[in-house]
């Protein structure tokens, strides 16, 4: 059959990325030492020479056929296979999935899972570069509200987003642990009354602006020597304002 994709392009311009996105695929990820089944969403792409009209979309899906576990080895294999199958110089992959962290309540010691939005963003040219992303719910209590109020202080859920760049997949558990450093208290799924009392009082004793939170997290990331780059944002879903508050820190930004 005629291979239309391999025809010469009429417009001789190279394409930086061409591929498929929003491909839903079942697999497992390892978190806290255990394999967790999940459903992932893939974006996959390669570069395309200016002379070639089109890429071969079916070959992207073929690279996933034998992938059961999403880990460093399989990530490298997908990217390498994309380059080989599609005769490209660079390959790109973004995979988004939900992971679960087992958290222990501070007093009752009851355990339950907290869901975390995760992603790996990777590209392979001459070298492999991998970004690991997590979105972690936390709790913050307003220092200003505490200072000016006779009774209590307003608190709210906040969302910590961390993206780090390295030559390998970074530990999701470690990034969640670091995200909790910017919280007045972490978020738990299962709390008994004794835990609720403790968490409420802990938040009151540990008030955090979004500025405080993002700096605490940035400081922790600065102390890691195996990161090339990071970006942190904290968004407070305000409880008494008709807006959200946010702050962002990025390594090497001006």
Care to describe what's here?
With 254 residues, the protein is α+β, with helices and mostly antiparallel strands. It has a single domain, classed as Urate Oxidase, CATH 3.10.270.10. It is built from six helices and ten strands; from the N terminus they run ββαβαβββαβαβααββ. Strands 1, 2, 3, 4, 5, 6, 7, 8, 9 and 10 form a ten-stranded mixed beta sheet that branches. A hairpin with an 8-residue loop joins strand 9 and strand 10. The chain is elongated, with a radius of gyration of 22 Å. The N and C termini lie far apart (54 Å). The model has no long low-confidence stretch (mean pLDDT 92).
Features:
254 residues, alpha+beta, Urate Oxidase, ten-stranded mixed β-sheet, 6 helices, elongated
Uncertain spans? none
Secondary-structure element sequence?
Answer: EEHEHEEEHEHEHHEE
How many DSSP H or I helices? Answer: 6
Radius of gyration: 22 Å
What is the CATH third-level topology name? Answer: Urate Oxidase
Q: Identify the CATH class.
A: Alpha Beta
Show the helix and strand layout.
Elements: E1 15-31, E2 34-48, H1 57-62, E3 69-70, H2 72-86, E4 91-104, E5 111-124, E6 128-141, H3 143-148, E7 155-166, H4 172-180, E8 185-186, H5 193-205, H6 210-222, E9 229-236, E10 245-250
Parallel strand pairs: 1-3
Antiparallel strand pairs: 1-2, 2-4, 4-5, 5-6, 6-7, 6-8, 7-9, 9-10
């Amino acid at each position: 059959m005629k291979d239309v994709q391999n025809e010469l392009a009429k417009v001789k311009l190279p394409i930086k990325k061409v591929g498929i996105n929003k491909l839903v695929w079942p697999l497992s990820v390892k978190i806290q030492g255990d394999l967790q089944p999940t459903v992932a969403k893939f974006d996959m792409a390669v570069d395309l020479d200016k002379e070639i009209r089109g890429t071969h979309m079916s070959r992207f899906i073929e690279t996933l056929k034998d992938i059961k576990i999403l880990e460093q080895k399989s990530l490298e294999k997908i990217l390498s296979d994309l380059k080989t199958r599609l005769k490209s110089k660079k390959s790109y992959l973004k995979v988004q999935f939900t992971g679960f962290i087992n958290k222990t309540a501070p007093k009752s010691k009851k355990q339950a899972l907290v869901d975390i939005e995760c992603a790996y963003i990777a590209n392979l040219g001459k070298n492999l570069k991998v970004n690991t992303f997590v979105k972690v719910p936390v709790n913050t209590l307003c220092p200003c509200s505490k200072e000016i109020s006779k009774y209590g202080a307003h608190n709210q859920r906040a969302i910590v987003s961390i993206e780090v760049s390295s030559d390998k997949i970074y530990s999701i558990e470690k990034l969640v642990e670091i995200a909790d450093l910017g919280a007045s208290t972490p978020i738990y799924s299962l709390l008994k009354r004794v835990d609720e009392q403790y968490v409420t009082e802990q938040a009151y004793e540990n008030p955090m602006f979004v500025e405080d939170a993002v700096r605490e997290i940035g400081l922790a990331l600065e102390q890691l020597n195996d990161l090339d780059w990071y970006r942190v944002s904290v968004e407070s879903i305000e409880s008494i304002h008709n807006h959200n508050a946010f702050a962002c820190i990025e390594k090497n930004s001006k």
